[in-house]
């Protein structure tokens, strides 16, 4: 480090250096040359502070209060968007709402303001919608598309600045939720794991500070706002549970919150929705139900009690309920649409985890033997079902509609591929197991064009696959 970095400097060279035409560093109270020669040093003019930037002045220059005002932040975000509000929210309706409708219908139906009239939280939400609806580039640099990553980091930066200014609202919580979903969908870990924590707390703080609850005689506006709150709370809990299953043995964050904070009230699944099963809000309610069962199964498997019989009975009940929900979901959707059902994907994930655990139960008596045999048979069946579901999209029979495809299906396919790989040596017909593995891995490769988490999963599979099996899978 230069120890003279912070010294004051004169406007002109000292009189001795000027008279002898020597190079002067203009340091005060004496220049470097005069100091080394031990000669008197004089300046004609008064000294001024050094223009060399210090850490504090540099920070002030980059983050001035003027540029960090809400108005300036909004203007900067609008410049990044480059599209009209109607175009961005139309993109949300087409590409997010079909499988994860976290914005109330009221917001979509109301007249959209121009960017000049829009508040800061509205523009931030639009930025996050635009980010999630952006597909990664087909030509990445150093493993990460540069423009894609820049857009993500830009959005995260604005969220951090707005948080630091103490600005919060329902739309900002919605924006945070979309960014967390983006991180999940593209395999940005541990960012997604960290973001879900801040999103949960942001929603909780909003509830405490704004006291969002229906009055005794709610107006239409009150009901619309409460409905929007319940939608976003449900969405946050779904994401939290999904992340937790991949994160390890710890319970989900929202499991520790009071029951009334994050549970949809009766307005969420209104009677009208029950008659319209194609309604996106109906599908979100099914995703919420499936995530509840997935969270329960994960919690029992990772945090069992000391009573083995009690644990086994709990798992049996959750599996039974999951199978019932799975049957309902299959009846409600068309065969070709199973891949687009987030609820069915989460439901199958819970069953897959339960059956996998059952195959590893130590056989000590007739009851554990029965459990092991049933789990092994059920695991084989569900692996076949998952493979058959994704096969048309790998074979080219059908094209994936990425506007309808939730990223939640990707972990299910990855987990299935991992189990097929793990059990490959146990299969009587290894050629059939290899066929399944090629299909499952092929699906991840196809979907990686939209959701980068698939490439992350493929990398994990490659790490856990022996070179011999990998050669067989790739047909080399």
TrEMBL record:
Pfam families attached here?
Fungal_trans, Zn_clus
Which PROSITE patterns does this entry report, sorted A to Z?
ZN2_CY6_FUNGAL_1 (PS00463), ZN2_CY6_FUNGAL_2 (PS50048)
Q: Sorted alphabetically, which keywords does the UniProt record give?
A: DNA-binding, Metal-binding, Nucleus, Transcription, Transcription regulation
Annotated Gene Ontology cellular component terms: nucleus
- Its primary localisation, in coarse terms, equals nucleus
Q: Where does the protein end up?
A: Nucleus
Annotated GO molecular function terms are: DNA binding; DNA-binding transcription factor activity, RNA polymerase II-specific; zinc ion binding
Record has Plastid as a keyword: no
This protein's source sits in the domain of life called Eukaryota
Instruction: Give the signal sequence positions.
Output: none
Domain Zn(2)-C6 fungal-type: from-to ranges: 13-43
Choose any GO biological process term that the UniProt entry carries and state it. Answer: DNA-templated transcription
Q: Which PANTHER family match?
A: ZN(II)2CYS6 TRANSCRIPTION FACTOR (EUROFUNG) (PTHR47338:SF20), ZN(II)2CYS6 TRANSCRIPTION FACTOR (EUROFUNG)-RELATED (PTHR47338)
Protein name (Swiss-Prot/TrEMBL): Zn(2)-C6 fungal-type domain-containing protein
